[in-house]
Amino acid sequence: MTSDAPTGAHPGARKAATVFIFVTVLIDIMAFGLIIPVLPHLVQEMAGGDMVTAAKWVGIFGVLFAAIQFVSSPVQGAMSDRFGRRPVILLSCLGLGVDFIFMALAQTLPWLLVGRVISAIFAASFTTANAYIADVTEPSKRAQAFGMLGAAFGLGFIVGPIIGGTLSGIDIRLPFWAAAGLALVNFCYGLFVLPESLPKARRSARIDWAHAHPFGSMKLLARYPAIWGMVAVVFLLNLAHYVYPSVFVLFADAAYGWGPRTVGYVLGVVGVLSVIVNAVLVKRVVAKFGERRALLIGLSCGVVGFAIYGLAPTGAVFLMGMPIMALWALAMPATQSMVTRLVGPEVQGRVQGALTSLASLAGIIAPAIYTSVFALFIGPHAPAKLPGAPFLLACALLASAGLVAWRFIRTHAELQVDGPLPAPANPGEG
């Protein structure tokens, strides 16, 4: 139950470990997916039914969630480098299960906000899962493995939102109880089935507190200049992606009159498309075009998809843009694979924690921006009635990511990655 499955292990052991982490992430995403269609509406209900007020509160929720993760992710990464991936994932699942119960019982916005803070502290399994994949997968196959992890996200979003939207028709709090059950089931699954991926011999000798905070983790990334361009792309990708949790549910209601159940079905379709891209296309596109071109293809499709979302006059047109938007999923696995190639196993957790901190930094900035833009363009003093304005802003950000990626790829077109770059000279700093 706790056997190691390092990169050098037998292929069968590596495959089994990948399956275990796939299931772990799938169950976690299903739990989060259950509450996605209903959380903004619960906030709106607690805010007296006013959508503009609800949008502002959702923005506060998003900023605080990301701010907590910005601080906690490097700590979680450092802990997983020191103690292994398994205990961090188990603690995450247990904490989330208890927290979903807390949110199900919350009766006021401040208490619901406390619940989101607890979620942010314990939502570590996604960060650690990336380090886990790097532990058990050969460098040449990591893009495919990260694609399968993306497929777990997509599959979770197929089932979770559909069930959550359906359960909300019975009681708006019922999805939170179901999410709690899933998270606790995941804890039990991990406790009895999930193997450790990082052998004791490959762990850090101590917790690297020098880099176990956001700014220290950024300093760690600075020691690997070959990945700076990819780090910038990761930041911009996440900055654009935050348009979804920030405004999508309220946008769907304002633009097309979609309620929680319809939103659940739409997110289910998004999940189906994501699974197809991540489980089927990532491997083939990377094999044919390479990781760098796969990244550019994904970014280009994302720009076009966001433009369609922002300007779609009807729900039918919005739905037509979803297959194009789905191809954006090619970008992240390719980027993650390139990053993991360039750092050693002893710092994978801290590097993944640093990247998650970057994503959280984007999450601190993005919700306030997107919800403010949304509120402006649906409010009484809107310069134009354009609920899709936040998606157009995301489109511009993703186009910027494409320019950064293109410049970096041209600069490093001849880079051959044969193994991780050497660790910093002072082990205490790397």
Please tell me about this protein's structure.
There is one protein chain. This protein is mainly α and 430 residues long. It has one domain (11-197, 216-413): MFS general substrate transporter like domains (Growth Hormone, Chain: A, Up-down Bundle). It has 16 helices and no strands. The protein has helices spanning 11-35, 39-46, 51-83, 85-105, 109-122, 125-136, 142-168, 174-192, 214-222, 228-241, 243-256, 260-311, 315-326, 331-341, 348-378, 389-411. The longest helix has 52 residues, at 260-311. It is globular. The relative contact order is 0.17. This is Tetracycline resistance MFS efflux pump. It is found in: Membrane. InterPro entries: MFS, MFS_dom, MFS_trans_sf, Tet-R_TetA/multi-R_MdtG-like. Keywords: Membrane, Transmembrane, Transmembrane helix, Transport.
Write the topology of this structure.
Layout: H1 11-35, H2 39-46, H3 51-83, H4 85-105, H5 109-122, H6 125-136, H7 142-168, H8 174-192, H9 214-222, H10 228-241, H11 243-256, H12 260-311, H13 315-326, H14 331-341, H15 348-378, H16 389-411
Which key features would you list for this structure?
transmembrane, 430 residues, globular, disordered N terminus, transmembrane helix, mainly alpha, 76% helix, disordered C terminus, Growth Hormone, Chain: A
Structure summarized in a few sentences:
The protein has helices at residues 11-35, 39-46, 51-83, 85-105, 109-122, 125-136, 142-168, 174-192, 214-222, 228-241, 243-256, 260-311, 315-326, 331-341, 348-378, 389-411. The protein is mainly alpha-helical and 430 residues long. The radius of gyration is 21 Å and the shape is globular.
